[in-house]
Amino acid sequence: MDLSPVWLTLQLAGVTTIILLVICTPLAWWLANSQSRWAAIIEAVVALPLVLPPTVLGFYLLLALGANGVIGGPWSDLTGSALTFTFSGLVIASVIYSLPFVVQPLQNAFVSVGKKPLEVAWCLGASRLDAFTTVIIPLSLRGYITAAVLGFTHTMGEFGVVLMVGGSIPSETQVLSIAIYERVEMLDYSTAHKLSAGLLIFTFIVLLIVYSINRKAPQNAS
Amino acid sequence: MPARINASFQIQFTGFQLNAELDLPAKGVTTLFGPSGSGKSTILRCIAGLERSDSGYLQVGDEVWQDEKQNIFLETHKRSLGYVFQEPRLFSHLTVKKNLEYGLKRTPISERIIDWDQVIALLAIEHLLERKPHHLSLGEQQRVAIGRALLASPKLLLMDEPLASLDIARKREVLPFIRKLHDEVDIPVVYVSHSLQEVLQITDNLVLVKEGKTVASGSLTELCSELELSQYLGDMSGSVLETIVAAHEDEFSLTRLAFEGGHLYVPQQSGEVGRSLRVHVLARNIGIALEKPPVTSMLNIIPATVVEVSISNIEKHAVQIKLDVGVPLLACISRKSLHVLRLKPGLPCYALIKAVSFAQEMVEV
User: Fold this and answer.
1) Is the pLDDT of residue B363 over 50?
2) Secondary structure (DSSP) of A9-78
């Protein structure tokens, strides 16, 4: 059995999650604390992937990532190749697609931690960045775990967007969900079973570990 | 000239305007005193740089922390200060020891003036070091919070009603530590309170805050005998006397206290001769006589002169009299007594002291 879709999926989900945690930390912090009227607009934009049909999102991403698109154009000028039907393109698409699943738990965590611990840290001589990394991030640990897991598993399970943007190129863009779909189309139920059951068990184990850790993680702001 | 703290803050909030002017000695405990919602905490937050006023000025000793005219605003973490909040606000993800070390680690070794062992002993928190904050009682947490602020070796310690979140038993547990702090650590403290009892126990200087404005400031003894302030304190108006234990009369279980105006007999107090003792005399516990009563059971009869008579708008039947017994002394008598005695400034008389209080409890004399 060809395991490359499994490997590719883990890679895609891993890279996407790491990028998302980095991008979403400042974004969620800003959303949690901003009084600006822009905050509501940004919040709505971030939440869009939650409700849009993946095909709609996939269609626009296909246009944006193509050789003449707003992202794909400059990218192909820079690298000489388009983003559509590539792993890099899939990463960009996944980041956008899974954004709300990472932003929202982080934002909730930051709101519940509040600004008080930060003020204490400042008064004790910690600079803004120092206070954020030594106080806010550890106190938001549950939020980070939830965000990482949701981002990871949600990326693993995506189908519509991947199909639109990445197609199904083995070892490049053929992720697990696409591979399963193709096996079913070819009536190769036994491989489809193995891949599906594998994904099911893996996802369950990840969630189990996470929720077990979560129960032991420190309570927020108590 | 001793170091001072000078500040001026103006901030407009919706429905509330802060207009504070401070000029305090950078020594001892200064209390910002006033009712809840009068802006005391906001002043403290301004000093810490947690609020920024558009036209603010703040100088602590020879360091300017804020001068909006010259566009100077030192960020909070660059100000050498300690802040104890109403709630302990310990970092819940760190042990007590790590909490205590948080500020210490961020203080350059050359600027560390506070000794670890001294703080641990002062606050009696040795046995708590390895625990997480949520395993501590609120009183213990607040002691740790005070220790954490101290260990950063601040040049100024800000305390925002540190006892407010505690019940009476916990208050009794923490207050002695704050008092000891005053004696053992030479860091100026700006303390916020709306409790007169707390003020009487720990304060050297008082700043009165009312509706966002600083209305008066001075030493506790000075301010307490201002008639204007006494109206503001209502039933609790009175004078503060700084006394020294002069002698114990064991056979009568009495202690004689000496103060600038003479002597005061009180029920026996602990402490050796020479110990200083702060006494609060409520205005309503002082009577006035024009002549020295020839035979009386009253122990404390002190010659006085009338300084000022003030007719209160609040209490129709009572008047406040400011007496001079060497130090100012406030008395509150009925309007009818005023009419009978015909008191006016300059008139010699006698003050009859019926009761005094130390810290918490009132004692009859």
Assistant:
1) no
2) HHHHHHHHHHHHHHHHHHHHHHHHH--STHHHHHHHHHHHHHHS-HHHHHHHHHHHHSTTSTTHHHHHHH
